[in-house]
Amino acid sequence: EPKKSLDPDEEYKLSGDLRELYDRLLPSKESEDRRTQLCKKLERILDEEWPGNDIQVNMFGSSGNLLSSSDSDVDLCITTDAKALGDMHELAKRLNKHGMEKVVCRAAAKVPIVKCWDPELQLACDVNVNNPLALENTRMIKTYVQLDDRVRPLAKIIKYWTKRRILNDAGPGGTISSYTWICMILNFLQRRDPPILPSLQKMRNAERSTANGQPSDFVDDVDALKGWGKKNNESLAQLLFQFFRHYGYEFEYTKHVVSVREGRLLSRTEKGWETNSIDNKEGRHRLCVEEPFNTYRNLGNSADEYSWSGLHNEIRRAFELLEDGCQIEKVCEQYEFP
Ligand code: CTP
Ligand code: MG
């Protein structure tokens, strides 16, 4: 039986260690400035290549949701009406012409992207075109992160752990994306008792605010909602421990679906994602995480049975190390391939 909670002295010590780690993980001002510069630079390049069009370059993902580190890749989304920019091969060619290196075009991916490296600003980036969903889900994550002071350190520390243990690559043969982990973290916080986070998409009574003149699909009034979860006084250390306990031992992978949109767990049956469903492929995956906006998408579908089991073992490993009073450094020790 896994230990129920951390003892007070363990909790105190781990809390201190986590604060220290969190401080180290915060991006430097200098690295944030370089990100902004990269955005502006790409806008200049695109304006020069496709003059006379209204073209914006927006940061999303960790560069836009307060969860980046100094070494994170930059996720960029070009928004424009110019049709010519939809041709990813052409975009790749023009970026290369302007000095971008390691330019790779993934035109056939679910979301077509161009990957490149800017040797001047020393930044790697993934560029896509017109993906409003990614901009909105980034803005929602940022809103959640701002609601309670525990969200940012918890998410950053878990992301650091996933990176060190090589658990955040959704590519072929990989595990799941950082974005999927973030949804699992937010939903875990929505389900604490008392909850630390609400469902921003369910708060329909509140006055809907607007972003860029468009109606928002979620409540985004941070000032009004800040401190929403303060009835829960669990510490950062306790939450980290409980996160691993939850996904290591409590969460029933064959029955449950993580739903940030609903702010609770859905059963696979109500979601229509049964393990053996013939007409819906999403349920065949061991991990079910609903994309909050495109709810037919399962963000857990990048992990096959083998990689899910590796992932599950890693969650349990982290829990057991914390249970044994080990240091966070040990939990986040760099994974070495055998
Ligand atoms: N995204 C998405 N659907 C996915 C994966 C990603 O819509 N299946 C979008 C989300 O907007 C997400 C962004 O792509 O915020 C970046 O995803 P990812 O790189 O996984 O997350 P980051 O927060 O950028 O984390 P990291 O620092 O590890 O890059
Ligand atoms: Mg990213």
From TrEMBL:
Coiled-coil stretches: none
Name of the protein in its database record: polynucleotide adenylyltransferase
Poly(A) RNA polymerase mitochondrial-like central palm domain mapped to chain residues: 14-146
Family: Belongs to the DNA polymerase type-B-like family.
Highest taxon of the lineage: Eukaryota
Span of the entire protein shown here: 120 to 457 of 1155
Comp. bias intervals (Basic and acidic residues): 1-10
Ranges for domain PAP-associated: 235-295
